[in-house]
Design goal:
four-stranded antiparallel beta sheet; alpha+beta; single chain; six-stranded mixed beta sheet
Length: about 325
């Protein structure tokens, strides 16, 4: 049997994976280890390394270590966990990691649910919330999250009519369905959506109720130009339009003004407050002396923002 010296190359790895040998002997230092393929479904194999005790690539007990999932038809490795000690030119494809696949699966199930449920509240949603957990979640959304969600809508000038049912399905950890997902993605997504709809009537109602709250909150916000969210929008729009990478921001909390240099990107989008943590050390010291070590600042504290010598945003004067 040919023994490959560690680290092997990606080409050597795929040559073995495409072949019929269930194992490949590899040598790291004085020890001979084995890469092993373990079939788990048609055309799908788990990859492990069984390492000799005492080697640097495993624990001292010589246990199996998971290295990835191999799909033979596409010759692709998913959830690959190859270190440079095993495969010298291995470059992980982040779109095939466990986290990325879970993100894509959740997004696909949500979209499928929204296509099915749409606005058919009577058919798919429960009539009332009976779960104390879901009731508490709804009240927390009403009191806190809906305000910021409405402000984010303001920043993109969203139409209130576009606020509809939005599914919040989230599968947090893969189980056996990962293999099914890799071999039949559309079928696995449809099955998950059907199962959630069949048993998640209260969660679906919760999402409808959240949409109702957000729509009402946003309509109220559109009628109140004095809301602080409009100042956040003005700051964001001005900085984004300037295309600046760095800006000088002048801050005042009712006393002396302090001007500091910071990254422009931190002002784009909705922010309930701005973090001074990214300021240059000298500017951070000046900020802390003026406002305190653990202080932050809001859009209402900004007097002006400048790109070089040009002012790109200035707070309205009193009474304007």
């Amino acid at each position: 049997m040919v023994i490959k010296k560690l680290p092997i190359t990606v080409a050597e790895l795929h040559e073995w994976l495409q072949g019929d040998d269930p194992a490949m002997s590899v040598m790291g230092g004085l020890y001979t280890d084995a890469l092993i393929k373990f079939p788990v479904a048609e055309g799908v194999e788990y990859i492990y390394i069984q390492s000799a005790p005492g080697t640097m690539i495993c624990d001292r007990r010589g246990n199996f270590r998971f290295c990835g999932i191999y799909l033979r038809d596409s010759d692709q490795i998913y959830n690959g966990k190859f270190s440079m000690e095993l495969v010298r030119d291995w470059v992980e494809d982040h779109e095939r990691t466990e986290t990325a696949m879970l993100r894509d699966f959740n997004a696909a199930v949500r979209l499928r649910m929204e296509e099915i449920v749409a606005e058919n509240r009577e058919k798919y949603a429960a009539k009332v919330l009976t779960s104390s957990r879901l009731k508490a979640e709804l009240e927390h959304y009403r009191e806190y999250e809906s305000r910021e969600d409405a402000a984010r809508r303001l920043l993109i000038a969203s139409d209130p009519a576009n606020i509809r049912f939005k599914a919040h399905f989230e599968h947090r950890k893969w189980g056996d369905e990962l293999i099914r997902y890799l071999t039949d993605r559309d079928g696995t997504v449809k099955e998950a959506a059907r199962d959630y709809i069949a048993h998640g009537g209260e969660e679906i109602l919760l999402d409808f109720l959240k949409a109702d709250i957000l729509r009402e909150r946003y309509i109220e916000l559109l009628k109140d130009p004095s809301d602080p969210a409009y100042t956040v929008k003005a700051v964001s729009d001005a900085v984004e339009k300037s295309h600046a990478k760095y800006v000088k921001v002048t801050i005042s909390k009712g006393g002396p003004e302090v001007t500091v240099m910071t990254e422009a990107a931190g002002f784009v989008g909705y922010h309930s407050y701005y973090d001074p943590g990214c300021l240059l050390s000298a500017d951070k010291e000046a900020f802390e002396q003026a406002f305190g070590k653990y202080a932050d600042y809001t859009a209402q504290d900004i007097v002006r923002i400048a790109r070089g010598t040009k002012t790109i945003y200035e707070a309205p004067k009193g009474g304007e």
